[in-house]
Amino acid sequence: MASEFKKKKFWRAVVAEFFAMSLFIFISIGAALGFNFPVSANETMTRVQDNVKVSLAFGISIATMAQSVGHISGAHLNPAVTLGLLLSCQISILRAIMYIIAQCLGAVVATAILSGITSGLPNNSLGLNALSAGINPGQGLGIEIIATLQLVLCVLATTDRRRTDVSGSAPLAIGLSVALGHLLAIDYTGCGINPARSFGSALITTNFTNHWIFWVGPLIGGASAALIYDFILAPRSSDVTDRMKVWTSGQVEEYDLDADDSRVEMKPK
Q1: b/e map 194-206, b = 16+ CB within 10 Å
Q2: Residue 225: what pLDDT?
Q3: Sequence-ordered list of residues with C-beta below 8 angstroms from that of 236, at least 6 positions apart, any chain
Q4: End-to-end CA distance of the chain, in Å?
Q5: What's the rounded Cα separation, in Å, for the pair 244 and 133?
Q6: Angstrom distances, CA of residue 257 to CA of 90, 114, 159, 162, 194
Q7: Strand, helix or coil at 161?
Q8: Is 259 helix (H, G, I), strand (E, B) or coil?
Q9: Residues 6+ apart with CB under 8 A from 107
Q10: Higher-pLDDT residue of 253, 173
Q11: Long-range contacts: 153-157, Cβ < 8 Å, 24+?
């Protein structure tokens, strides 16, 4: 871990996660809040949120950020994705911890900026995730698990360097997976599937009601996706013990896409 900690490219990757996460949160939650602003001064009809617009905003912004910083940090932009790649033995424990911290800080900073820009909105929730009426915590947890599982499964599959059949854009595929998760979960939980994104809104609004769901659900979903992909759908040929060495060294030949910094790029191999 010490050798990875001293590398400039490691810290560039951490900064990239923070910067890209800040842009992602600002753009996506900003798009979600936009419907509250009246189009004209004479508008009398109550406007409702367009779930398709919000889903596309989250999906396209993730795809854009993945294309922009994927070659630097892997563009995880989600603690659940980071956990999935950690359990898949693709990143070190140190990198996973630093990424999650950077992601949470990025979400907090972006949400705080949005709070100032949208201060004129009454009862501004800043994209706070919450259970819809009629949805209990267990049901909300299930939605978050499934929505996150399909996302992390998509990340693992599209960035698997053993594949030769992926000819399209990995960032776009992952962005569409994010959009798909939102199309499913918005009406039930507001769609977390990203603990850092949920944390930013909860911290700035100081509202942590049922907040545990938006950590436990995505983390279970991400971990499940990694285990299902690596041990059932596409088992690795290398020994598990050898693969686990990446947790301390940050380098394993099967996963090393750049021998100098062991990053995982968001593009098909």
Answers
A1: bbbbbbbbbbbee
A2: 97
A3: 230, 243, 254
A4: 27
A5: 43
A6: 10, 36, 11, 12, 25
A7: coil
A8: coil
A9: 21, 22, 25, 196, 197, 199, 200, 201
A10: 173
A11: 153/225, 153/228, 153/229, 155/81, 155/84, 155/85, 156/84, 156/85, 156/88, 156/225, 156/226, 156/229, 156/230, 157/229, 157/234
DSSP state for residue 47 in the 8-state scheme: P
CB count within 10 Å of CB 49 equals 14
E strand or H helix that includes residue 12: helix 8-33
Could you tell me the two tokens for 258? 């750049």
Mind listing the pLDDT tens digit for each residue in 191-205?
999 999 999 999 999
Q: Quote the pTM value.
A: 0.88
Q: Each residue of 86-105: pLDDT tens digit?
A: 999 999 999 999 999 999 99
- Cα separation, 86 vs 92, whole angstroms: 7
Helix then strand then coil, in percent of the chain rounded to 5, is 65, 0, 35
The number of beta carbons lying within 10 Å of the beta carbon of residue 220 is 18
Give, in order, the Cα–Cα distances in Å from 219 to each of 22, 151, 246, 248: 21, 12, 20, 21
Q: Which of 67-71, 122-126, 240-244 has the lowest mean pLDDT?
A: 240-244
Quick one: pLDDT band at residue 267, thresholds 50, 70, 90?
very low
Contact between 10 and 260 (Cβ < 8 Å): no
